[in-house]
Amino acid sequence: MKGLKVQELISSGVYATVYFFVVAIATFLLRFTIPTFNTLFIPGLSALFSGVVYLIVINRVPKFGAITIVGSVMAIFFLVFGYFPLAFLPSIVFPLIADWIQNKTNLQEKLKTYLSYVVFSFGLTGPILPLWFMKEAYVASLLNRGKDMTYVNSVFAPITTASFFISMGATLVLSILGLTIGQKIYQKHFSKEARKGIK
């Protein structure tokens, strides 16, 4: 973070806000289209929509720290709004790893960008991973928040081994697809060449 100048920190904050709204839109759409399984597909659909935002971040602020800031906005949201106590961690850890891949490795550029974005996209799995791996603690957390067992059972209804692989697989596939689509949008509207054309 020390390498980021004030203007770059501000820009990262702006892109983080944009990313937050993209995730909010994905969540909103899923809740009205897949009411039972919507939570499991939030990371994947968000990754499908966020590719162009990620490309803007890595091209406009090509320094270590920017990706971490953008991803961590969701960690703050999960903390403030009372999600499962550990839900915020992936939103810091995965973006941090993605940041390292993008800015600290010597991988081929295209591979590096795809790999870092896939890893970044898993940052939104924080609220759902405990459903499979920390069920008892998650149930206790819901009950402590005043939820009844009817609600708890509805939350865990779709939680199976198959749904885990479907959710994680969707995140993987949709992040790759999202970045591919994002590259086309970026080249057409946000690249240096596109901005020169506007001028």
Automatic annotation (TrEMBL):
Show the InterPro entries listed in the entry. CHP02185_IM
Sorted alphabetically, which Pfam families does this protein's record hold?
Trep_Strep
Bilayer-crossing residues are 12-34, 40-57, 69-94, 114-134, 155-181
Give UniProt keywords alphabetically: Membrane, Transmembrane, Transmembrane helix
Q: Which NCBIfam families match?
A: Trep_Strep
* Protein name as catalogued: ABC transporter permease
